[in-house]
Amino acid sequence: MPNKSRPRILWTVLGISLIAALGVWSLLFSLKDRSVLSLTVFDVGQADAVFIETPDRFQVLVDGGGDAQILQKLGSVMPFWDRTVDLVILTHPHADHVGGLVDVIKRYRVGAVIESNANYGTAEYAEWQKLKKENNIVSHSAVLGMRVGIGRYARVQILSPFGVMSAVSLKNPHDANVTALVSFGASKFLLMGDAEDEIERGILGRGINPRANMLKVGHHGSRTSSSEIFLAAVSPGISVVSAGRNNRYGHPHQEILDRLAAFSKQVFRTDRDGDVVISSDGRSVTTATAK
Ligand SMILES: [Zn+2]
């Protein structure tokens, strides 16, 4: 029955050509290095999620926000066929940082995890632990001095916790916050998570230089963090606060906004600016906002 099989052959050939074209296109796209590193502070409400993509497309997610909206955010910065996140850093196990990572680990193949691994007894955190185990994901315990290459051109340096906190029980999980300094060429990005002034003092007291072009402000702009002495040492050109509109904590606190204005050239906040994107070519840094 040649008159019936011919269209079928034609469709098969067309299908194969289309798949081949898409394959070549995606391969070319993924092989080509860009010249910039981009860092996006997502607007995920009263929560934290930062996505980093290096010039050679190594992808890092620092915290995942509180819920599944992280999936829509990742979909907006990653190509549709990309189902891998190379590295996840969890700053601490509070629900507004780990909640969305549970959704991420269900949809994406996560290469490795860095977190404090301190004990924490909530349902979200138990689910996160279970999913890491089921997916055979290595969970490295963060500690001061740890350095990790992210792709060939950039690196992450861990500034806290100051000792290994694996299996340690804490009253305040912020005391084991994973603080990360990302370097690309001469550009530095300091991601504070919910670190409070005790960690800030610990960093300065150990003679660590926290100077950075960009600061992801600690603890949603709360007055527990961003001490004057620390902001003076960081001296960030750009500060970004992640906070939800009309959140019940009153974050960011006005005194911290005033302080940031004094120590920083530009201050962004996700509740007003939406997603904030910072790009660096290794020398200078530029910003763009969603709103
Ligand atoms: Zn927290």
Sum this structure up briefly.
It contains eight helices and 15 strands.
Fold and architecture overview:
There is one protein chain. Strand 4, helix 3 (95-107) and strand 5 form a beta-alpha-beta unit. The strands form 2 sheets. This protein has an 8-stranded mixed beta sheet with strand order 6-5-4-3-2-1-14-15, with helices on one face. A 7-stranded mixed beta sheet has the order 7-8-9-10-11-12-13. It has 291 residues and is α/β, with parallel strands linked by helices. 32% of the residues lie in helices and 25% in strands. The longest helix is centred in the first third of the chain and has 30 residues, at 2-31. The termini are far apart. The chain folds into 2 domains: 1-32; 33-289, Ribonuclease Z/Hydroxyacylglutathione hydrolase-like (Metallo-beta-lactamase, Chain A, 4-Layer Sandwich). It contains 8 helices and 15 strands. The radius of gyration is 21 Å and the shape is globular. The model has no long low-confidence stretch (mean pLDDT 93). The chain has helices spanning 2-31, 69-77, 95-107, 123-134, 197-205, 228-234, 254-263, 270-273, and strands at 37-41, 50-53, 59-62, 84-89, 109-115, 139-141, 147-150, 154-160, 179-184, 187-191, 214-216, 238-241, 266-269, 276-280, 285-289. The protein binds zinc ion.
